[in-house]
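Pipeline run #58 for the internal structure catalog. This entry was flagged by the ingest filter as a single-chain record with no existing model, so it goes straight to prediction. Upstream metadata was stripped on purpose; only the residue string is passed forward. Reviewer on rotation: M.T. Logging verbosity set to normal.
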Amino acid sequence: MSEGSLEAPIRHDIPWTDPGFTDPEAIDAELRRVFDICHGCRRCFNLCDSFPKLFDLIDDSESGELDSVDSAGFKPVADACTLCDMCFMTKCPYVPPHEFNLDFPHLMLRYRAMEHKEGKVAFAHRQLVQTDRNGKMARLAAPIANWASARGNGLTRPVLESVGGVHRDADLPKFHSTLFEKRPATEPVNTQAPAYGRKAVLYATCFVNYNNPDIGEAARAVLAKNGVETEVVYPSCCGMPQLEQGDIADVAKKAKAVSTELAAWIDKGYDIIALTPSCALMLKFEWPLILPGDETVKKLSEATSDITEYVVDIAKNEGMADGLSPLDGKVALHFACHARAQNMGPKAMEMLKLTPDADVQLMERCSGHGGSWGVMKENFETAIKVGRPVSRQVKESGAAFVVSECPLAREHVLQGVERLNEDGETINVEPAQHPIQLLARAYGLSGTAGNKS
């Protein structure tokens, strides 16, 4: 037996249609096998709250070993996992092809799939992650929706906490009346750019479509400046929120629908670009593991890039269009977990380094947000605690810009900074959330203002 991750890690297909996948006894046996390995290793103790909960559970048992731990104690461990994939990607020495065959995040997913099948996911939680429905409804009265969801609203937020389980202090994304998919292009395609001739579809993602269309406008403007013809396509959400709750069947349904529509564009010669890393991760990696025999899903996986990855590819292969100016200040760049999980390197860092005299500080710690996980009443304070190291880095950086490829993580980090400040005030930074907005700013293009209503 070889020790450590001496070979490139691989991930197995997810056999979610197999009846044994959600069998409680089989899951308990696998949890005990994996937890015993984790208990003897403990390299992941500082990644998220799952591992401290697991190690305390075992250490406080009668024997100090797993044999005296009741299986009922496993639920808090599974509930604390945000599916960030950082244990699999950066810490665990026993991932496949090692003989121990350990994939902690996908085991937690399996546990949640069992709970979903047993009807144990709360109704309010299931409604919270209906991003398409919620976004379409909220856009009809965006100012009212934003007022109601605003942090500090003493009238509505306690009700949302009581009924929906959303912590009253958690920052929530704003909604827009005009969706990104409905907005016209703001910049003509630059026929003199070195990359002229490229064509790409922007998969809008639910966050950009409903919550911050400025990110999409910035991406489209940067690509047009660099000669890329773009179309905006949004069949539906990628299903990451449903994956977090173990509803794999719904994810598979979304994967089939979205991949079918996007594959038609691939056949026309278009590349596919996802505007947020969680969605890129789903299209590139998770969907092929959920539907391994689906050739359309495979085709989409091979044609998909993250937006920062795509811009860096232009820079390396054709070269960037002229016109980039220095940014007026230092950039604190949070390296989002789902960008790291794509195993492509810090592409946002590479992209921002294309600007003259770039001063960028990369922060490679988890924000603690975890999608919908971090806004829930039972998780919010833990999420702030997990993200405290990166919040401290941001506070000490003195940066004029704080951005992350995961905009929700960015806002959560700033909440952490607010907690660190004795006066309770957040740091004074520019409103841009995503690195692509800073590149648009350096070009003097649209989509740089940040989160407008």
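catalog note: DSSP finds 22 helices and seven strands in the chain.
catalog note: The two ends are 57 Å apart (CA to CA).
status: ready for reviewer M.T.
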